[in-house]
Amino acid sequence: VNPQTFYNRTKSSRVVHALVAGIDRYPRKVTTTMGKKKIAKRSKIKAFVKVFNYNHLMPTRYSVDIPLDKTVVNKDVFRDPALKRKARREAKVKFEERYKTGKNKWFFQKLRF
């Protein structure tokens, strides 16, 4: 999920870069025989928020429209660890909400290549 793109080059970052939110730890497999508590525990997601160089991103035909709050998830979060934790938490909550709705199932599966 790409919340923001930065085309302007600054002294701290001389390359074109993008703020990216993604999944660090994917949800585990859930079956119908499991209880609600176990399903809730296995449905947890660990999110990350990073700035990537555009050369290190690979465009694909896939896209996900998960709206992240731009006031919480922005480039300024990297200056303060508390703000970064808040941004990660925001991404985690949004990802878990989308996972529970059952949409974009391919997004919540670990890439195997």
From TrEMBL:
Ribosomal protein listed as a keyword: yes
GO terms of biological process kind: translation
- Which cellular component appears as one GO term in the record? ribonucleoprotein complex
Pfam families xrefs: Ribosomal_L27e
SUPFAM superfamilies in alphabetical order? Translation proteins SH3-like domain
Keyword Lipid biosynthesis: yes or no?
no
Which Gene Ontology molecular function entries are recorded, alphabetically? Answer: structural constituent of ribosome
The organism's superkingdom is given as Eukaryota
Keyword terms: Ribonucleoprotein, Ribosomal protein
* Family statement: Belongs to the eukaryotic ribosomal protein eL27 family.
Protein name as it appears in the record:
60S ribosomal protein L27
- Organism, scientific name: Neogobius melanostomus (round goby)
